[in-house]
Structure formats: structure tokens, C-alpha cells
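Pasting as-is:
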Amino acid sequence: MTERTPHTQGAGTEVPDSSEKDSGGQDTPRTDPLQQPAVTRLANGRQVPIPRQKRPGPYRVPPRAQRHGLLIVNTGDGKGKTTAALGVLLRAYGRGMEVGMYQFVKRLTNTGEHRVARRLGVVMEALGAGCTGARSVTDTDIARARAGWQRVQGVLAEGRYDVLILDELTLPMTWGWLDEQEVIDALRGRAQGTHVIVTGRHAPEALVAAADLVTDMRVIKHPYRSEGLKAQGGIDV
């Protein structure tokens, strides 16, 4: 493979001079390229070019005081609720926003998203004891959900994150492990400018009413139902 070499000026090529000359003909280097020039004309009468000030783009991230923090709910029986939330987390991280994720019910800590989170330095914690679909609910399940919610309440109040995902939070609400009104009041009272994404099936009507954005994932076709395929690494976990 041929090694690339840095571009150099050819013979006879005029190299731009970043310095200016004041009215006495002395060089006055401009250290900041966006700084307004000290003089408007050079000794030879030419006007000094004035740099354009770059304006913020239309999609810049506003400061918290100017931001409308959204409450987003991803619910329904279809696949993609958590996946969609993770897409927002990645997008927000790319904008320099502080992001985090707390997962209710779930217990796995080495899924694909957890591995990426550790590389990025993003907080992502599983707070549960695992899915209860094939077993009886235990006191440990309920205790973990309530302890996890106590932690999340503090996070919401202090405004640690710009984007916070509360994965599967709808389930302990629907199952009666958490007080529904208490959860909704805490979500409404979150710190200014905090975007919160709640995921999970069977979102309570009161949560849907309180949300700014609600998406209902419908099942049209699923490989588990039609082909008996179990969850796969990189797609489901």
C-alpha cells in the first residue's frame, strides 16, 4: 500500500499570509480566525477580509432553560420499543448531550447495548431480576422495581441527564408494583429540559395522557411466532 504524504506547496505557489499589516506596515498576527481585524485596510490600500461569523444551525441543542423536555412513550406488542429508544440515545450522544438508561424488570448486563454503553462511558443499568413470563412473581421482583424507582426519582429531580430512558417502566406500573400516580407526578416534575423516554407494553392510560409523544408498536409479523426463532445476538440482545 502506498503511504500517503501530506500536501505541500509547489514551487512558485503563493502561500496565504494569516497576518495583517497595520497602518505603519508592521505585521500584526491574528491568533483567532474569527476575531475582527484590528485595521480595516492594509498599507497597500487593500481592505482586510472580515471573517464570517458562523451562526448556530437550526438543529442546535438549546440550553436547558430554553428546552422543552419531552415525555415520550414507546408501547405496544410489537418489537422495537427499546430499539427505538436506543436510537434516540445514540443520536443525543452524538450531539454532546448527557444520556442514560435504567431498565426495569430486565437483568442482563452484557447485551450489545450494554457493551457499547461501557465503551462510550454511558450509564446503563439493569434493575430487575429477569422476565416473569415463565415463572411466578416473587417479593424480590417487586422490591427491585421499587428500589430502582427510588433511584430514578432522584435522577429525575436533579436533572443529571439530557435524555433519560426508563426501559420497561410500564410493566411494574401495570402490574401494580409501583404507584401509577406517583410515577406520573415524578415524570411531570422532572428537571427543566429533560427528555424522558418510557418503554414497555400496556402503557397506562394516564401515562399516555401525560406524554408529549406516544408510539404504539403493532405486530404484523414476528419470527418467534411464525418460525419459532428465539432472540438473536445483535438483533434482540
